[in-house]
């Protein structure tokens, strides 16, 4: 049987995090009352004129720089004509022949194998509205989303497996979220992906005919849909058939893709330059300003966390994968007024106790304690005020409160007794009461020191500083 190689190219639509829409001043807030954030421009009323949103352009430029694309000095908006109920103007304003950026790449890694995926272009465009079918037997349209700003990121057909596709999407999402361009929310559709999939006999250069998969609203679905599609096309070719170029939809319930429509070609859209908008001009100053906004990208930060702090690959990935994780981690290690905190200890806490209690809401991470609270907790252990075991109790006690760890320790009488005089008195008493064990110790049975430590701990309800108790007891017993 013929062996086939999958060829995959991804088109990602990412909503830019602006307050207002791409060509009008309407709000982009998600979840508003249907058709409440609309105006003559985004409703496509005759005579209404679009004005391009500068902030959208700035965010788009930032994304282009972060993904190593060339930013084109001028670019052109065009009309892409098609009819659909959620597209009131009868065309979508998009960039076509002259996008604002082209020719970048993204490095991904799957099971230790690194691959560079080319990015053909990123262009700006407006979103369409949202149709909902079967509402009381009707189909209804909400135009709140119409005209919200998107960038479309088009990859080269360089991807060769579903795992690579998922890895590409994860890295892409992390970058866009970390630079403040997108909220990374697949469920709400602010980060959407279409996957173009074809197969070809291994060794053949020419690409096969592709199907375009839509409706992939989670990384898991992307991977599954691609695998299912590869299997479907393989079965067709093995049976001597031909794959048709079409748009297919993935149904996660049945794990099947089904045909939606024949795929339109570019000439079907009758593109022409948008007469109501001037060419987009991007200045060198804007490029430099946006380059400065980007800061350290997740991949660079991850490498630095591993080499500078000695974090594991996995720990560094988690802590650099989301800007909120980064902010929290950096917040703890840079807490002022404390001795230097070991970043590894911070990572440990964040990946165990805190990770369990984190709440993620609309892509925002809510931590169970503040960076200052965690910093203080770590310092309490480092300075032997409490034991590591007690630290977990303190943590559990202060979760979701703003009580400081030292206040909690005081209020609960957990403070370790480190007073030399106090400990000496207790140790002397214990030694005086235990003649038999003292004799055993002095006869060379050094292990019996454990008995004394136990007695002291009992007398102090576990709060004696164990290091000091050991030292004092040894001194007394060695006589
Ligand atoms: P459109 O989908 O709008 O027609 P393109 O033709 O430029 O746009 O292709 C879009 C995506 O399809 C790109 O990501 C590209 O890499 C991918 N692609 C093109 N040809 C193939 C193919 N034969 N197999 C898989 N992916 C492909
Ligand atoms: Mg397409
Ligand atoms: Zn509007």
Strand content: 15-25%
Number of helices: 15
Coarse morphology = elongated
Spatial strand sequence of the major β-sheet: 2-6-7-10-1-11-12-13-14
Oligomer: single chain
Q: Which class best fits the helix and strand makeup? A: alpha+beta
Q: How many domain modules?
A: 3
The separation of the N and C termini measures: 86 Å
Describe this entry's structure for a reader:
The chain is of the alpha+beta class. The strands form 5 sheets. It has a 9-stranded mixed beta sheet with strand order 2-6-7-10-1-11-12-13-14. A 3-stranded antiparallel beta sheet has the order 5-4-15, with no helix packed on it. The N and C termini lie far apart (86 Å). The model has no long low-confidence stretch (mean pLDDT 92). It has helices at 54-66, 162-178, 219-238, 284-294, 298-309, 313-320, 323-333, 343-357, 371-382, 388-398, 405-411, 420-433, 435-442, 449-459, 466-478, and strands spanning 4-15, 70-71, 74-75, 77-81, 91-95, 101-110, 113-126, 130-135, 138-142, 149-155, 191-201, 211-214, 246-251, 256-262, 272-273, 280-281, 359-361, 364-366. The chain has 3 domains: 4-289, no CATH class; 296-411, no CATH class; 420-477, Arc Repressor Mutant, subunit A, CATH 1.10.10.410. 35% of the residues are buried. β13 (246-251) and β14 form a beta hairpin. It has 15 helices and 18 strands. Bound molecules: adenosine-5'-diphosphate (ADP), magnesium ion and zinc ion (ZN). Residues 11, 194, 212 line the site of magnesium ion.
